[in-house]
């Protein structure tokens, strides 16, 4: 039986660059059954541009959210309208390798997975090429991933890429039976939270040790230029708080090892949050700003929504700083964070295939 795929592409003000993402889906060696492009109430010419593309390719279906709701709301609308056996999600600033769907189909035929994820290729939009593989799934080819495994690879220790950044494909039947959808109340770390919810419902998660998803970096590994695409800066404090909220939820709270892993993730994210604000203050010569990095005790699980965590309430202080983080333009958010990486090399084949 042939495996069919629906590909969901959420777009918002992506008129200038969505061609690359859509073209990478259209040119798959295994053709998708449909390509659902979800316009999240763009204010530029995105909607009209996609409408023209849909006239040329009957696989393209253009949908629009009733109001701007962020990537999660757009993806969920795609889930509700998908027709393929499996659903893949592609961010508008990223791209698929030409045989991504074909490789997934081959794995699906020999597994009972509900969730499949491959490795990432980092794409430098400034240099116009792939720089390196994330090597996130190395050594895990065909292996089933438990919730503990997943959390163990999301502790933000600088040793490897977080598995929460992986871009899985989903068995549509599992999504329909569970009714699970992306969380629409958060704008950072929604992939991480969604995968956890799937694993808590018993999803079988399998990894493929092949880099088939081209992930556009915020700051290019070669060009050192900020991407002019839609990927935003990371609100580390909000991600830390989200981890603590998850630690308080049913299915996790009663398992000390899982709680400890989420607390470790929160601690690592808070260190990145501190490094971010130190770098901003130093670049601006703002000595007083250095005092904004709060001395915190060990993080403890907390309940409630992220928006309910305010300065001075418990061990996590993020709300005020995250607001500034999201509104303030930054040249290089990770200037102050030293993470050892392999020097990037531009793969020459990538420029022609994915530019």
From TrEMBL:
<feature type="domain" description="Glycosyltransferase 2-like">
    <location>
        <begin position="6"/>
        <end position="126"/>
    </location>
</feature>
<dbReference type="InterPro" id="IPR001173">
    <property type="entry name" value="Glyco_trans_2-like"/>
</dbReference>
<dbReference type="Pfam" id="PF00535">
    <property type="entry name" value="Glycos_transf_2"/>
</dbReference>
<protein>
    <recommendedName>
        <fullName>Glycosyltransferase 2-like domain-containing protein</fullName>
    </recommendedName>
</protein>
<dbReference type="InterPro" id="IPR050834">
    <property type="entry name" value="Glycosyltransf_2"/>
</dbReference>
<dbReference type="InterPro" id="IPR029044">
    <property type="entry name" value="Nucleotide-diphossugar_trans"/>
</dbReference>
